[in-house]
Design goal:
The chain has one domain. The chain is 43% helix and 6% strand. It has 2 helices and 2 strands. A two-stranded parallel sheet has the order 1-2. Strand 1, helix 2 and strand 2 form a beta-alpha-beta unit. The model has no long low-confidence stretch (mean pLDDT 94).
């Protein structure tokens, strides 16, 4: 999971799941607790799914 996708690409990460922002990678404090939970649940789910994928080149997963 990375909030700076270009930096992750430059560093050579092969699986990249974008996060929301630098100070709040898995949430948005301007939203309700329920909405934050949904955001986190979805992003972590995408990241777990990414771990099971066999990739041959750098891949940025859609969230």
């Amino acid at each position: 999971m990375a909030n700076l996708v270009p930096v992750a690409k430059t560093a050579g990460a092969n699986k990249i799941v974008p996060t929301i922002s630098i100070p709040y990678p898995l949430g948005d404090p301007s939203t309700s607790r329920e909405e934050q939970w949904k955001l986190r649940y979805h992003r972590v789910g995408v990241a777990l799914e990414a771990l099971t994928q066999d990739v041959q080149e750098q891949t940025v997963f859609r969230v």
